[in-house]
Amino acid sequence: MTDHESPQGVSEVDKESAKNTKHKKAMEKQKAKVDANIDRAQEEKGIMVLLTGDGKGKTSSGFGMVLRALGYGQRVGIVQFIKGVQKSGEELFISERFPEVYFHQMGTGFTWNTQDRSGDIAAAERTWEHATKLLTDPSYDLVLLDELTYMIAYQYLDEAMILSTLQNRPFEQSLIVTGRGGGSALQALADTVSEVKDVKHAFRAGIKARPGVDY
Ligand code: ATP
Ligand code: MG
């Protein structure tokens, strides 16, 4: 028995080569599957993505797609329905370096801070006007409606009116909606729905929110 042989007499080299062959076969199978799926997905239309759930990563994922769209020279519009006291990194970056991006924020704080229902509703309605402007303009390739779900959940805006505006947006326009909840009708309307699961969050271990990570 040489150094490279196991007690059963199969050399380590043979084992590696068997593993490589198995891997290649599995990858061939996987590639055939992926290729078949790519062939099947032939429809060209704007996609509505809903990013929901209790975990961290919804807004930042939305801005990740904004970055992708900008990379292709696409026209992007962003409306944020809830704003923290702190300016976010994405707001600072976009307003300073990408003034061509349409960026509107509701301007009021979180509803648990304002504690003013009628003021919030008026602000929501004013903000929705900005969303409507984007959702009726085919020159926008990508629209991000950040935290829109809360406007439905708190009944600040009419759900049927929101859904019909989203549905009737320009055919080629993609749309991202973020926020917890939002209801089953919004989920049904979306083409892609991802639920970010909260497994753990640093905040609950007493770690302070950090610029560049949390805002
Ligand atoms: P992000 O903006 O980081 O992508 P998000 O959009 O998924 O987060 P929101 O509910 O909009 O989450 O809350 C935004 C802020 O709250 C962020 O600072 C984020 O780190 C924090 N946060 C998100 N999820 C949780 C959680 N489960 N527990 C505590 N804080 C959270
Ligand atoms: Mg968010």
Give the helix/strand layout:
Elements (H helix, E strand, L loop, with lengths): L11 H29 L7 E5 L5 H14 L4 E5 L8 H9 L4 E4 L5 H4 L2 H19 L6 E5 L2 H5 L5 H9 L6 E5 L5 H6 L2 E4 L20
The chain binds adenosine-5'-triphosphate (ATP) and magnesium ion.
Magnesium ion (MG) binds next to α2.
- Major sheet: order of its strands? 3-2-4-5-1-6
Helix content: 40-55%
| CATH topology (fold) name of the largest domain | Rossmann fold
User: What is the total number of structural domains?
Assistant: 2
Derived structural class:
alpha/beta
* Residue share in β-strands: 5-15%
Question: What integer is the average pLDDT?
Answer: 91
Bound chemical compounds: adenosine-5'-triphosphate, magnesium ion
User: Distance between the terminal alpha carbons, to the nearest Å?
Assistant: 61 Å
| CATH superfamily descriptor of the largest domain | P-loop containing nucleotide triphosphate hydrolases
**Order of secondary-structure elements:** HEHEHEHHEHHEHE
CATH class call of the largest domain: Alpha Beta
Q: Return Rg in Å.
A: 23 Å
CATH architecture of the largest domain: 3-Layer(aba) Sandwich
Largest sheet data: 6 strands, parallel
Keyword list:
six-stranded parallel β-sheet, alpha/beta, binds adenosine-5'-triphosphate, globular, 215 residues, single chain, Rossmann fold, binds magnesium ion, 2 domains, 6 strands
Description:
By secondary structure, this protein is α/β, with parallel strands linked by helices. The chain folds into 2 domains: 1-42; 48-205, P-loop containing nucleotide triphosphate hydrolases (Rossmann fold, 3-Layer(aba) Sandwich). It has 8 helices and 6 strands; from the N terminus they run H-E-H-E-H-E-H-H-E-H-H-E-H-E. Strands 3-2-4-5-1-6 form a 6-stranded parallel sheet, with helices on both faces. Strand 2, helix 3 and strand 3 form a beta-alpha-beta unit. The mean pLDDT is 91.
